[in-house]
Specification:
6-stranded antiparallel sheet, 5-stranded antiparallel sheet, globular, mainly beta, about 50% strand
Length: about 210
């Protein structure tokens, strides 16, 4: 069943959606919120992982042995302050987020994978750089129409802002859903979604395996 989930800002990592929930079969999504002078360590296990810096910046240490990608992740103050920095992390790889005098907020996206790939850290504006990863990360393409499994996260400059989306399921049944600040919505496979209205300045983060319909 389609329906939004709401993210309440919480220190640390907050898992929000995973396979088996709301029609999702392959995608995981959560948000990491780290205070200054703190760390977060994790392992990608059987998944490829993508980190999307929503705001702030950190030092990112990825991998061990020959597959390493260490550098800075994050260049913007918040989602309305330019493009995201993104890191791609292959399966069975460690990664550590270290903050200094500034904290950071990161969207963490995962999907099962067993492909051996190099870890990659992209600077702001490089979101469309070709990678050999399954996950497709798209910001602010609110006018496109989508079909296929996806997760959308919304944020507004004015917390009273909202978007209305229309959905058409595989049986051609239609539904409309209104989303507000910090709302998350999953779009199950073979479900079509498109924007109907947008009230306020909106940020949309979309995570999918597919591309938008023209």
């Amino acid at each position: 069943m389609l329906g939004p989930k709401h993210y309440t800002t919480t220190e640390g990592y907050t898992p929000l959606i995973g396979p088996g929930e709301l029609g999702i079969t392959n995608l995981h999504f959560g948000i990491l919120n780290l205070a200054p002078e703190s760390t977060f360590f994790d392992h990608s296990d059987d998944c490829e992982v993508v980190l999307v810096a929503l705001g702030g910046h950190c030092t990112l240490l990825v991998g061990h042995n020959g597959n390493k990608a260490n550098g800075t992740l994050g260049e913007r103050a918040n989602v309305f302050d330019g493009d995201a920095c993104i890191a791609y992390i292959p399966h069975h790889t460690t990664y550590e987020v270290i903050t200094n005098r500034n904290g950071i907020e990161i969207a963490i996206c995962k999907t099962p994978s067993h492909k051996d790939k190099a870890a990659v850290i992209l600077e702001a504006g490089e979101i469309e750089v070709e990678t050999d990863y399954q996950l497709c990360i798209i910001e602010n393409d609110v006018s496109s129409e989508w079909i296929g499994e996806a997760i959308c996260f919304y944020r507004f400059q004015d917390e009273n802002g909202s978007v209305t989306l229309q959905f058409i399921d595989p049986e051609k049944k239609k539904a409309r859903i209104v989303l507000h600040n910090n709302d998350l919505l999953v779009i199950p496979e073979k479900t079509r979604a498109r924007l109907i209205t947008c009230e306020g300045v909106c940020y949309q983060l979309l995570i999918t395996h597919s591309t938008p319909l023209q």
